[in-house]
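Worked problem 6 (solution included).
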Amino acid sequence: MPVVAQAGDDAATAVAQTYRRFARLEARGRSAAYEALAESVASDTALVSFIASLPLDITRDDDTRWLSCLVWPGEGDRAQRLEAAIASARRDPPAVHPGDMLNRPDREPRDVAAMAALTGEPRW
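Solution. The predicted structure is:
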């Protein structure tokens, strides 16, 4: 679901509105759990602010330290794979375009094809 925002809204307001919209228009009547989760996220100021700050900037040490905290101890070579991915992304930074690729008039066909190959659908 694309982020719903109106002129003048800040990113956090847009994120909260999107989660509320999902809860009320998509989840209601289909999944009480998803409806409650989406409403909870929309009401959590710290979580909404974090989501609004995404995507993380791979060139910032604070962001990469945060990512490394997501690797649990004992998960094999995941820490090494993350370090290699960060190094690769820093050498050749990917183009990051926020939003829904289906609603981006400036999207490039190769980007859509690449995302479809990775995720099975042309969006991120």
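Discussion: Residues 29 and 124 are 26 Å apart (CA to CA).
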